[in-house]
Amino acid sequence: MESENQTCVLEFILLGVSEDVLLQPLLFGLFLSMYLVTSIGNLLIILAIIMDSHLHTPMYFFLSNLSLADIWFISTTIPKMLLNIQTQSKVITYAGCITQLYFFMLFGDLDNFLLTVMAYDRFVAICHPLRYTIIMNPRLCGLLLLASWIMTALHSLLQSLMVLRLSFCEELEIPHFFCELNQLIHLARSDTFLNDLVMYFATGLVAIVPLTGNLFSYSKIVTSIFRISSAGGKYKAFSTCGSHLSVVSLFYGTVLVLGVYLSSAAAQNSRAIAIASVMYTVVTPMLNSFIYSLKNKDIKQALKKLFRQETFST
User: Fold this and answer.
1) At what angle do helices 78-87 and 58-75 cross, to 10 degrees?
2) C-alpha distances in angstroms, 257 versus 208, 218, 253, 285?
3) Using CA of residue 145, residue 146, residue 151, residue 152, what is the dihedral sign?
4) Angle 138-164/58-75 helices, nearest 10 degrees?
5) Backbone angles phi, psi at 172, to 5 degrees
6) Whole-model pTM above 0.85?
7) What is the dihedral of CA 61, 67, 71, 74, to 10 degrees?
8) In angstroms, rounded to a whole number, what is the distance separating the alpha carbons of residues 256 and 114?
9) pLDDT tens sequence across 5-31
10) What's the pLDDT at 251?
């Protein structure tokens, strides 16, 4: 192809987590179980929030959207992986690869921004409790959610369009179980300087802004909690953000550890990248539902009430 913005490749080959034939049934069962646990767990949280009127607050409004984003996030990669294992086919079309890339980045970024919005919600609740209902009004909550969607959609669209300008002129193997941005750029046969520049700058910006927001909110929260004189008051204030803080720590901790690990020379020439990516693509969304269902008293009570209603109705 003479034109740089065209491609002659029709499909990619996803090599998956392992090419060992004997491991495929085990991998299928493992990833199917994690997918079902993640989807069912987050759906139960959403249903509990909808059914319990006491949870119709800004905090749980954002939590329901976070749970929904986690379901969509894991659904962009695992069903295709399971289908490939079941059909013993590793093929993904060019259009399917770009589509998967777009939605994977969209819902991954959305998770990040929603966690930041939830941190701001906790900051207002603890630092300005008397003005909480005034500040966190339905209009502001809607605008924060809309802004999160717009920013993540624009970033995902930008990165996807940048990939479309690259040339892929042979059957290419991706040592991964999904179409990951960095892998696609490295497989291109055209100049990728602009793609690398946009990828690092835009991804860094999308990562730094939410991280800064989380750090600012929790620095103010910690300062306010230390000003509380009674131990009971400190525990009550901390308990209102304990679940969210655990999820934020898990999210950024996983990203940081994987970033350091995957930047090492040992990880660049092995399937370690795909295996390590399982942490943030599968394990983290699954653990989020456990954290909120086990550490949040309101969610636990709502789930118990939901199960009691289901038992009585049957």
Assistant:
1) 30
2) 16, 21, 6, 16
3) positive
4) 20
5) -110, 140
6) yes
7) 130
8) 19
9) 444 667 899 988 888 888 899 999 999
10) 87
Compute the distance between CA of residue 31 and CA of residue 78 in angstroms, rounded to an integer. 7
Spatial separation of the C-alpha atoms in residues 254 and 12, rounded to whole Å: 28
Segment 134-170, tens digit of pLDDT: 999 999 999 999 999 999 999 999 999 999 998 887 6
Residue 20 vs residues 50, 70, 103, 149: alpha-carbon distances, Å:
44, 29, 29, 39
Residue 42, amino acid = N
Helix (H) or strand (E) holding 138: helix 138-164
DSSP letters for 61-102: HHHHHHHHHHHHHHHTTHHHHHHHHHHT--EEEHHHHHHHHH
Using the structure block, give the residue that is written with the tokens 């993540």: 152
Asked if 184 and 97 touch (Cβ cutoff 8 Å), the reply is: yes
Select from 27, 30, 8, 25 the least CA-distant residue to 17. 27
8 Å CB contact between 110 and 151 = no
> Residue 96, exposed/middle/buried by CB under 10 A (0-12, 13-18, 19+)?
middle
- Give the residue-averaged pLDDT of 211-235: 87
Determine the pLDDT at residue 49. 93
Q: In what order do the strands lie in the sheet with 91-93?
A: 91-93, 11-14, 172-174
